[in-house]
Amino acid sequence: MPVDNEWYHRLGDAWWDPDGTIAPLHEINPTRVAYFCDALGEIEGIRILEIGCGGGLMAEAYAQRGAFTVGIDRSLPSLRVARRHAAAERIVIDYSGSLAEELPFSDGAFDAVVTADTLEHVENVDQVVAEAARVLKPGGRFVYDTINRTWQSRLLLVWLPQNIFRIAPPDTHDYRKFVKPEELHALLTKHGLTNCETYGLALKRHPIAAGLSYARTRRLGGFVIGDDTSMSYVGYAVKAASPSSA
């Protein structure tokens, strides 16, 4: 079955409800934000583009740390929620309704490009990576988080959460659209980005125990960065510096 990306249009204010439909995102995001910010280094004053920002959960974290943050997403209803929440929190973020494959920015416009939970939803991963590389400045960093295409991810991130524990709606993910690390690394190289590191992003608990916990408490038990890339993984790549700056 194809991915139901229209589901994100219908979330509304549930984007910001830590006990609601996307409670797992609120649980995983502190771990992801910590990794992303560590990979980027000092982010105060830099220009960051988030591809696939959704309702703005991670974009606000970068802006709160002093980055000039731009978020793009194809879901206009999600962006309305993101703008409303940022305004209420008095956080300045520039949101744009755009396709990840056709970024409306000039070459070298950003110091960093970040994307989480997005590459497994786009139509053309190659083109998204190409666009991310294009809008990065020489020496800029591309930080990513996506899902590996393995039997473990098919079982534990598609079948169990969508069909058994009902953590996610049907058709939230399509196993065929998951991206293996070596496939992503090859695309990064193709578009002038050098992968620097890749780590796994996994549940702290056994997935079955985490699912049972979620059914009782709406909590999975936390996430950890480590060596297990069999399901989700994070990492970053650097764009080659221009000859004049070398």
Description:
The chain is of the alpha/beta class. It has a single domain (5-147, 177-200, 233-239), classed as Rossmann fold (3-Layer(aba) Sandwich). Helix content is 35%, strand content 23%. The chain has 7 helices and 8 strands, in the order αβαβαββαβααβαββ. The chain has helices at 23-40, 57-64, 76-88, 125-135, 151-164, 181-190, 207-217, and strands at residues 47-51, 68-73, 94-97, 110-116, 136-147, 193-203, 223-226, 232-239. An 8-stranded mixed β-sheet has the order 3-2-1-4-5-8-6-7. Strand 4, helix 4 and strand 5 (136-147) form a beta-alpha-beta unit. The longest helix is centred in the N-terminal third of the chain and has 18 residues, at 23-40. 41% of the residues are buried. The model has no long low-confidence stretch (mean pLDDT 89).
In short:
With 246 residues, this protein is α/β, with parallel strands linked by helices. Helix content is 35%, strand content 23%.
Query: Total number of β-strand segments?
Result: 8
Helical segment count: 7
> What is the name of the CATH class?
Alpha Beta
The chain-level structural class is: alpha/beta
What distance lies between the first and last C-alpha atoms, to the nearest angstrom?
Answer: 48 Å
For the biggest sheet, the summary is:
8 strands, mixed
The percentage helix is 25-40%
Indicate the mean pLDDT.
89
How large is the share of residues in beta strands? 15-25%
Strand order of the largest sheet: 3-2-1-4-5-8-6-7
Number of domains: 1
Apparent shape: globular
